[in-house]
Write a structure and sequence with these properties.
This protein is mainly α. Among the domains are: 68 residues, no CATH class; 40 residues. It is 57% helix and 3% strand. The longest helix is centred in the last third of the chain and has 53 residues. It is rod-shaped.
């Protein structure tokens, strides 16, 4: 048989001397709903499909996409995609929606056309610059060849001109290596 003292000992909690507080319940974190749920005025579920892509700090992002595509179409589209592609899809939808709002007729296609036209104009400018560069290189090579030819011609003229004046004002032949035969030496000695 059990005594009353044994039963009371078993139900009383043992308090340790380390004085640690009993585990308390963590305070419930209240997160603000995503921008999509705020705009749609609905409760944001824990597994909201739109929450990772439309943060509460950027409501304009969802507003723009919602105006053009509608919330149900955005949700359906995201549910059909794998999670790895959803971020790019949302960014693309927002870009397309912004383009459609700016240009209701052409939308994104108008921006693409404008960019393609810029690319073709820049390619034409690049081709023109490359042609000018080739012409300048050709002119440079012609100029260098002309300078080289002129330099060679001057050297030949200096080599051809074999007479220079000496200190006495007479001309002597520098090309002749035999220094004993000068032109003023008499041919006949008496």
């Amino acid at each position: 048989m059990e005594s009353k003292s044994d039963a009371s000992v078993a139900t009383t909690p043992i308090i340790s001397s380390s004085s640690s507080p009993p585990p308390s319940l963590s305070p419930r974190v209240v997160l603000s709903p995503c921008a999509a749920c705020k705009i749609l005025r609905r409760r944001c579920a824990e597994r909201c499909v739109l929450a990772p892509y439309f943060p509460p700090t950027d409501p304009a992002k969802f507003t723009i996409a919602h105006r053009v595509f509608g919330a149900s179409n955005i949700i359906k589209f995201l549910q059909e995609l794998p999670e790895s592609q959803r971020t790019d899809a949302v960014n693309s939808m927002v870009y397309e929606a912004e383009a459609r709002i700016r240009d209701p007729v052409y939308g994104c296609a108008g921006a693409i056309y404008h960019l393609q036209r810029q690319v073709s104009e820049l390619q034409a400018q690049l081709a023109k610059a490359q042609v000018e560069m080739v012409n300048m290189q050709f002119q440079r090579s012609n100029l260098l060849e002309l300078i080289y030819n002129m330099d060679q011609q001057q050297k030949q003229e200096q080599d051809n001109m074999s007479f220079e004046s000496n200190d006495l004002g007479f001309l002597e032949d520098k090309s002749n290596t035999n220094s004993s035969m000068l032109w003023w030496d008499p041919l006949w000695t008496c």
